[in-house]
Description:
Blueprint: H1 14-31, H2 39-70
Helix pairs in contact: 1-2
Amino acid sequence: MTVQPSDISEKWSIEQIEQALSRLAEEIIARGEKGQVLLPMYSWLEGQLEKREQNRAVMASVRARAEKRAHQ
Length: 72
């Protein structure tokens, strides 16, 4: 598994990314057919969220392995 850092600033929390996705979804729906131009931005933000969550899961695994090694 290759984990890549997200491209969005680390200053953005997962919660902020979630809020941006929700707001963008509302905007896409409100624009109807014209909202489709925002789909690439929505997909990009989803990808950023997935990267953050994947990185969090990998770091949890790293910590667990280091903890296990420390107690051997």
